[in-house]
Amino acid sequence: MKPVIESGQVAEDRPLIVNTDKLCDTMTLVKARRGRRYKIVCISGGCEVQTRLASLGILPGQDIQVVRPGDMGPVLALVKGAKVALGRGVSHKIFVRPLQLESSNQPE
User: Fold this and answer.
1) Could you report the per-residue pLDDT of 32-70, keeping only the tens digit for each?
2) Torsion over CA: 13, 27, 18, 45 (sign)
3) Any idea what the Cα angle at residue 97 is, between residues 92 and 102, rounded to 5°?
4) If you classify domain 4-98 with CATH, what class do you get?
5) Cα 27–85–56 angle (5° rounding)?
6) What's the number of CA atoms in the CB half-sphere (13 Å) around residue 104?
7) CA-CA distance, 61 to 6, in Å (whole number)?
8) Which of 41, 61, 47, 56 is nearest to 87 (CA)?
9) Is the pLDDT score of 108 beyond 80?
10) Taking the domains of the chain in order of start, what are their residue ranges?
11) pTM as predicted
12) Which helix (H) or strand (E) holds 5?
């Protein structure tokens, strides 16, 4: 099993390994839909992947919006006001949960 960092955790030399049963209501970023906003739940992978994503502002607990899904190529996402292109391999390591709409008047 690969190491996973949960929301609120700090990446250390030995990241916390999480029971993947907690991920049952999440999806990987590759499966996220265009225009929707998501909350990053956790990131699986080694220290290099986690460090690289953290340098881009992609951390557990952070909001992320899909600009272009990764159907045929990289996922283009909006994080902290910046567009970031992520390859499919890395996008499979980012687990997200859809954000609930704050008002039922807003379109999905």
Assistant:
1) 999 999 999 999 988 999 999 999 999 999 999 999 988
2) negative
3) 150
4) mainly beta
5) 85
6) 0
7) 8
8) 56
9) no
10) 4-98
11) 0.71
12) strand 4-6
